[in-house]
Each structure stands twice: as C-alpha cells, then as structure tokens.
Amino acid sequence: MTRVLHVLDHSLPLHSGYTFRTRAIMAAQAASGLEVRGITGLRHAADGPVAEVADGLLFHRTRGEVTGPSGMREWREIGRLADAIVALARDWRPEVIHAHSPALCGLAAVRAGRALGIPVVYEIRAFWEDAAVGNGTGRAGSVKYRLTRALEDRVVDDADAVFTICHGLRDDLVDRGHAAGKIGLSPNGVDLSMFGDPPPRDEALASKLGFGAEDPVVGFIGSFYDYEGLDVLIEALPHLRERHPGARLLLVGGGPRDGMLRAQAARSPVADAIHFTGRVPHHEVERYYSLVDLLAYPRKASRLTELVTPLKPLEAMAQGKLVAASDVGGHRELIVDDETGTLFPPHDAEACADALADVLDARSAWPAMRERARVHVREKHDWARNIRRYQDVYQLLLTRAADGKLSAAA
C-alpha cells in the first residue's frame, strides 16, 4: 500500500477552498487504498495538537516561529518545514511526497525529498504572486512578485513531477520554458458522495429573508474579493429587475470587499432586494443554496482569473444549480456556454443583467441544462476518478526511484 505525505500551507479544520480541495484529494485517495497524511507549515494559523485528526484525516503540524527581515524569514520558514517533513518521514516512511502550492511548501518538500531519496510531486493551484495582486496584498511586477515567480520556477525545475489544476496554469509554465511532458493536469473536482439530490427549498429561511415563492433569486456564495466582480453584480440588479421585477440578490460570505459592497448596495435604487448574510457556518451553507435559482460568478478579467479555474461553479453544478459566469479563461475551462451554463462579458453590468434575465426567462430549459451540467461534473470532475491521474504518476516515479533515475535524488 503506497504511502503519500501531502505538504500543505494550511488544512482542516480551517475552512477554505484550499482545505476543501485537500480534503477531497486525501479522502478519495484513502478510499482507493492509499495511506495518506498531511503536514502543514508555520502558516497554519490555528490552535490544536501537533497531530490532529479532522474529517477522518491525520494532519501533522510544524511548530515554532521564525524571525528576520523579509526573504530571510521565508527562507527559515522553508527550512523549518523541511526539517519537520524529514523527521516525520523517518518515522512514518512515506514513499511519495506530494506538495501543494505555494512554492514555500514545494521547496521544503524538494529539500526533504532529496535528503530522504524519495520522489516529490508539486501541485500548483494558483500562482501566489497573482493571487496576492488579486486580493490586494501585492503589486504586479514588484520585487516580491518577481521573487515569488522565480521561486515557483525553481520548484517546478527541481520537483520530479508537476501538476496544475487547469490548462491556463500549465500553458503559462510551458511558455516560461518548462517541459510540457513533466506537467500533468489535475482539475478542480467535487466529491460527489457529498452531493445527492438538491435539498428542498428552506421555507423558514426564505420567510426570514422575505423571499416570496415566485421571487427569482440570484446568488453568490463565497469570498468577497475584488476580482470576484460582485460590484458588477450589484450594479446589474436594477437592470435585471426591469425584466424580472421580483428578482432578489443573495450574497453569502464575507471578505476584504464586504464593507465596500454593502455601501454600494445601500446606494442602489433596489437596495431592499439585496441581501447580505455575512459568513455562515459551513453546515448551514446548503440552506442558502436551496433558495437560489441561479448562481452568478461575475469575475473580472485579470491574469489570475484568466489562468485559474474556481471550485464554486463545479459545486453548484453538482448540486443541480444553474450557473452564469463571466467569460474569462478560468470559467471557460469549466462551462460550455448555453450547454452547461451561461457566459457573459466581464466588467459589463448590463450584459450581466441581460444574461441572467435570459436564463430566468428560459424556465422550460432549466432541467436539461442542470442535467448536462451534472453529467459534465460527474464525467470530468469527480475526485473518485481524477485521483487516478496522481496514482499513475506516483507509480512511474516509484519505478524510476527503484531504477535510480530520479532527478531529485541525484
């Protein structure tokens, strides 16, 4: 039975898109017969034991603090994580180390893999320099941006195999000069065992929010970053209500743009039709999904959104929900316009409103579109199937290791 150690920035019991993807991967691998554990770096900012079980998965924690100026501090962070990986590996003896972005995790894994003589797989979920620009904590072209990019390139060079979550990221790496044959795809996926029949409408919650039985509800459930384009969605609502006067907008979640979005909504001529819930417990999210007729994802065009595929539209499709999204690269990899969802131009509130209204008008087409979307997720984005991509690469690397042909162990 192959043992795989996943090296992570953070993990459950924290909730984020990052931790949910990790949970899905590790749970599917365990169900397939692999032995899996995770280890997190110093940025897992949550109290807990040094070895913690969450959702049936075991995660080890790297302890301690690092200090020093920027650059030196990160280098020490990498060293502390690499030492923790080696210490754990000498006890548990994994056969493969599978590191997940950011590059700090990847470099620590490569360093540990060389010390241990075992293969390292590095998986890129996003370019973190672009994510920093997207969430407002970084600037494109800055020294930190360029250094982060260079570190990513180094990890891609040094790892034995690389995965990205979408074609956009893979194509960008190939354009930088990395060998295409070294980079596989592991697209965002859904644990379909968690998605059965869509839940019935939660009438008590609908009544609490003031939603009438005939009011069409457009929703967004996620984090409120600028790149998500929720300001465009709020601007679109008055136009949508010209064709659907009872339309409501339900925004579930929170984040850096929360205050700005609430202020914009308060100024809207249809302010009473815009509903913010704040962050809700994960086990409550399904109640809000049950009220939504159409999930909207109006991401703005940027390097981040053109290259990276989001997870939320897939989860919505798996739940049998209609989806409409801006026509950016990350969405085009997930949604076929007018087949599995609807695409509209980014940054254009009126175009967004028209697309949403067209979907709401075509009620007779809803069942077929929902079914096409669910089939697409089942055939292309089911973790029970997608983990085979990893296992094929693991076996190839283990064969090479047995033959003494691993680059990282050289």
Automatic annotation (TrEMBL):
Q: What are the protein's UniProt keywords?
A: Glycosyltransferase, Transferase
Name of the protein described by the UniProt record:
Glycogen synthase
Q: Which NCBIfam families match?
A: stp3
Specify one Pfam family. Glyco_trans_4_4
Give residue ranges for domain Glycosyltransferase subfamily 4-like N-terminal: 17-189
Q: Does the keyword RNA-binding apply?
A: no
User: What Gene3D superfamilies does this protein map onto?
Assistant: Glycogen Phosphorylase B
Q: Which residues belong to any copy of the Glycosyl transferase family domain?
A: 206-374
**Bilayer-crossing regions:** none
Give the EC number(s) under which this enzyme is classified. Answer: 2.4.1.11
Q: Which InterPro entries match?
A: Glyco_trans_1 (IPR001296), Glyco_trans_4-like_N (IPR028098), Glycosyltransferase_grp1 (IPR050194), PEP-CTERM/XrtA_GlycosylTrfase (IPR024004)
For this UniProt entry, the molecular function terms from Gene Ontology, in alphabetical order, are: alpha-1,4-glucan glucosyltransferase (UDP-glucose donor) activity
